Amino acid sequence: MKTLEMSNDFGRPAGVRDSSTDRAAELLLRSGGIVLRYGLVLLVLWFGLFKFTPTEAQSIQPLVANSPLLSWLYAVTGVDGASRIIGVAEITIALLIAARPVSPRAAAIGSIGAVLMFLTTLSFLVTTPGSWGRVDGFVVPIGAGGFLIKDLLLLGAALWSASEAVAAGSRREGSGFFGRE
């Protein structure tokens, strides 16, 4: 007597596929990817544009001033100039990621730029005084730290966007993404 080998996907026998479930999963995956990528684009673009306002230039000043990676910008450009340089970088990153339908390579480069940007902003959690505090016995992000912690999720979105764009570019190129392999 032959027994059916069971799979882990909803108790169907291994090797048996449910096309409606596959279509639903594919729809969710594609929809989630679009929302994730273009949500990331919108937020990075919005943050970048806001860097051209005096309010944002002043609000990022304590973060940038305490950063070993970025504090040198103030000596070269001042508070407003540094904010604008960061804004240009963020706008460029957002536009590159948004280019995914026409250029997976541009989207991958923009996504990798976003990864580096979010790693930099997450470093502010360590370099900015007062980013952490004890609340009811728990150490939690407070003040600027409460705002910065969102970048952990955005880092994940940027990593996903980079991996998807690299995979799409490799499929499109028919070879290695960054050259012949």
Describe the fold and architecture:
The chain is mainly α and 181 residues long. The protein has one domain (25-168). The chain is built from six helices and two strands; from the N terminus they run H-H-H-H-E-E-H-H. Helix 1 (19-50) packs across helix 6 (151-173). The chain starts with 18 loop residues before the first helix and ends in an 8-residue tail after the last helix.
SSE run:
HHHHEEHH
Overall pLDDT level: 89
Pick out the low-confidence regions.
Answer: 1-10
Strand arrangement in the largest pleated sheet: 1-2
Cα radius of gyration in angstroms: 22 Å
Shape: globular
What helical percentage do the residues reach? 55-70%
Number of domain modules: 1
Summarize the structure.
The chain is mainly alpha-helical. About 70% of the residues lie in helices and about 5% in strands. It has helices at about 20-50, 55-65, 70-100, 105-125, 145-150, 150-175, and strands at about 130-135, 140.
Tag the structure with descriptive keywords.
single chain, 181 residues, mainly alpha, two-stranded antiparallel sheet, 6 helices, 4% strand, globular
